[in-house]
Amino acid sequence: MAARAKTAGRPERRKPRKVPGTKLTRAQIEEMFARFEARNPDPKTELDYKDPFTLLVSVVLSAQATDASVNRVTPALFEAADTPEKMAALGEEAVSETIKTIGLFRNKAKNVVALSKKLVAEHGGKVPRCREDLEALPGVGRKTANVVLNVAFGEPTIAIDTHIFRVSNRTGLAPGKTPLKVEEILERVIPDRYKHNAHHWLILHGRYVCKARKPECWRCEIRDLCTFKSKSDAPA
Questions:
Q1: Active-site pick, 143, 192, 195, 229
Q2: pTM
Q3: Minimal CA–CA distance to 19: which of 229, 165, 198, 227?
Q4: For this structure, is 50 an active site residue?
């Protein structure tokens, strides 16, 4: 009876609550991004560009292609046309010939020339800092707009590509069946101080560590926070 009376007054210990919509607690999410920041305080896109227009073109070209493959063709492309006016004048045939080593090059050439013409006609040759205006450009969807807003204009947007979608679901950070759902969860749960760089950290983590077929869990800096059950060990 004495022992029971002694413990009766103690506050009941509760497990930390998961953040709604995720499989992680708020402390785990904070720790995850603190570790990303400690390893890479100033992450950058791996696409080569020099201004908002060349970034926009590079991101459009990167759809279903690697950044490395895009970086191989853009030096010659931007040497010939590094402004919307020059790109519009260059034309689809010349653009296609220059970027023919990347996937879907004909359609991408068509979009690059068309968006260049629209920038000249409607925006004075400048890349707009407005999501609606960006998404109205040929070949530009929400992901591309988010990349441009984040990288070129410093907005805390999060562009959901295959890497971020995979990492968000696999780790339990933002489980979602669609890119938009994942984006909505990430926007809500990532602490404000990390939002601007979160896009880059998650992409790089998915590209080099949390790979699609064989995640390299043995060298993952957030392994203890991740909810993925089938974690892999280092190869013998």
A1: 143
A2: 0.89
A3: 227
A4: no
